[in-house]
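Onboarding guide, step 5: your first structure request.
Type a short instruction followed by the sequence, for example:

Predict the 3D structure of this protein.
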Amino acid sequence: QAVVDFERLGEHAAAFQGHDVGFCCLGTTRAKAGADGFVRVDRDYVAQAAELARAGGCKHFILQSSRGANAQSRFLYLRVKGEVENLVQAVGFDHCTILRPAVLLCKRQESRPVEWITQKFLGAVAWVFPTAYSVPVETVARAMVACALQPGEGKVKVLENGAIHELGKA
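The system replies with structure tokens like these:
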């Protein structure tokens, strides 16, 4: 494990050397970082990490994005997620897997009351419609590992929430 300063990511190129697979789940919130900070973390840092990984020999990059990601969206969150998907694909990995989970169900250390209520509601909905609106972070992690072990055909593979659930069961 290497600890890097994302503001000086280029100085940490050695940490990205010699890896066959790269996993990226980097992200923040607009509330926590402001609009500019959100863009810097969720797009710029991710794109630069992908470039460093590719330069370091990475063949397969696995990116956690978001349901609804679209570079043309009017919503900042979805637009930035779509932009970073395009930037990562343009890096030229042999394989690029993009996971687009719905609402992530997880326990957080920080207090986010609205998110907590949403997660409780969606957790209950998941009993009836398990793959419709949410996914536990553990399921996403298992799906990412499965993608690394069996990258499949094609240069780019995009997995929506239902496919993440299926792959995460393995």
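Each response can be followed by summary notes, for example: The chain has five helices and six strands.
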